[in-house]
Amino acid sequence: MFFILCAIIVVYVIYGLLISMRRPKNFPPGPAFLPYVGNTLQFRREARAAGGQHKLFEQWSERYQSQLLGLKLGQEYVVVALGHELVREVQLQEVFEGRPDNFFLRLRTMGTRKGITCTDGKLWYEHRHFAMKQMRNVGYGRTQMEQQIEHEAEALLQQLSRTAAAPIEPVNWLAQSVLNVLWCLIAGERIASDEDSTLRRLLELMNRRSRLFDISGGLLAQYPWLRFVAPKRTGYNLIRQLNSELYGFFMETIGEHRRQLQLCQERKQDPPENDLIYAYLLEMQSQTDVNSTFNETQLVMTILDYFIAGSQTTSNTINLALMVLAMRQDLQQQLHAELSANLHSNDDSVAFPHLSRRESFHHMEAFIMEVQRFFHITPITGPRRALWSTKLGGYDIPENTTILISLRSVHLDEQHWSKPHEFQPSRFIDESGKCRKDEYFMPFGLGRRRCLGDALARACIFSFLVRIVQHFHIVLPKGETPSLVLQPGITLTPKPYKVQFVKR
């Protein structure tokens, strides 16, 4: 009986090894799977050597002669889509609107599967629709948002003036300004921004999180048990700390809103502010269904989604734009000349240069587009999940396969862009001297899963840059040489650098 039992165990182990190494029928090409771990170890090793997973995917695309790659990370099937045709198809098809349900994504949302960004199905559709409607009601993408941007831009200019042209790292100042605009729409107020503020501490934690993980979630996504073995090295402790501080900060704000709302209702008055939190609290009160998805946890996770979306990508784009302007004085001079001509040739020359006036600033608009195309700070977007078995690019995609989308492969496509690895804003200027659109330019994604904060991002990037270039000459301190090579992570970030803001 002992030998029979041993034989059964051996057969079972061998069968498990063979199953774990088997590729699904007609699965996209890619590296061979190792038993149990799939491609995880090879993926981590070669991504570090390549300078990031986005570059590795392009190397593998050439190696396997395919713009669709099939991998296995841990027990999870992963498909990577490269090139304009496949990237566009994934973003626009309903079958790819799902989100994976793994340990890392649940850890991101404090152990839940709630919010908007990391959910799908009825919950995602219902709350995305509600949140976008309420954000528009409080001014998102409208005049009220532009007024908040104007206020924050003026505050930023005052801060830059106080530096007296001393060398500074601009990224933290920019992140505070962008988040304050967003927080006014969510909570009806700014976040304090002194040196020891909650905002600075949260931003530092967010920056560390971005550098430690990648879009596939790092090792925690494939091997959650590693949190017990190496909680610090895997980033588990960092995310727990960030979650704890964010949760406390959000709940304090929600609690204050709840008290104010109750007081107003007792006095039969309207809420003191029209913001997203009040809208959610009122919706929660109006729900009579015991199974309603409008609850406090969902509210916290929705706020978290907006907070994460607005905390880094927008400020890093402005940060990169300032770095380029400091390195390219010719571009800075061209943009300043355009601003001077437009801001002083009209009767409303003193008006704040909102995004609604961008048609007067063709070179500034083209410059911003080139910053987004050239640096592609979100080179891999997603992850998506196949809601049912389907086909993509002639290959079979099993249900629940994770899909990663390579925007970098579109923004640097040598078949479409002339000299894509050169920074040339003029590629977005047409024969008449106006800024032109391009179907290969998609920094915020496409379809119903496109970035939640695109309106805020576009308005902040344009208005902040116009105001800074209008009032300051941006120069590099002596000996400062910024790097165009960005640091990999969930998003790409520039290495720390310093510039001087010299008053014009």
UniProtKB/TrEMBL annotation:
Principal cellular location given in the protein's record: endoplasmic reticulum
CDD domains tied to this protein: CYP15A1-like (cd20651)
Phylogenetic placement of the source organism: Eukaryota, Metazoa, Ecdysozoa, Arthropoda, Hexapoda
GO biological process: organic acid metabolic process; xenobiotic metabolic process
Localisation: Endoplasmic reticulum membrane; Microsome membrane
Functional description taken from the UniProt entry: May be involved in the metabolism of insect hormones and in the breakdown of synthetic insecticides.
PROSITE patterns: CYTOCHROME_P450
The keyword Transcription regulation belongs to this UniProt entry's keyword annotation: no
Cofactor(s) listed: heme
Residues reported to bind heme: C451
Molecular function per GO: heme binding; iron ion binding; oxidoreductase activity, acting on paired donors, with incorporation or reduction of molecular oxygen, reduced flavin or flavoprotein as one donor, and incorporation of one atom of oxygen; steroid hydroxylase activity
Membrane topology type: Peripheral membrane protein
Protein family membership: Belongs to the cytochrome P450 family.
Protein name as catalogued: Cyp305a1
Signal peptide: none
The species this protein was found in: Drosophila busckii
InterPro entries xref list: Cyt_P450, Cyt_P450_CS, Cyt_P450_E_grp-I, Cyt_P450_sf, Cytochrome_P450_fam2
Pfam families cross-referenced by the UniProt entry: p450 (PF00067)
Keywords: Endoplasmic reticulum, Heme, Iron, Membrane, Metal-binding, Microsome, Monooxygenase, Oxidoreductase
Gene Ontology CC, one term: endoplasmic reticulum membrane
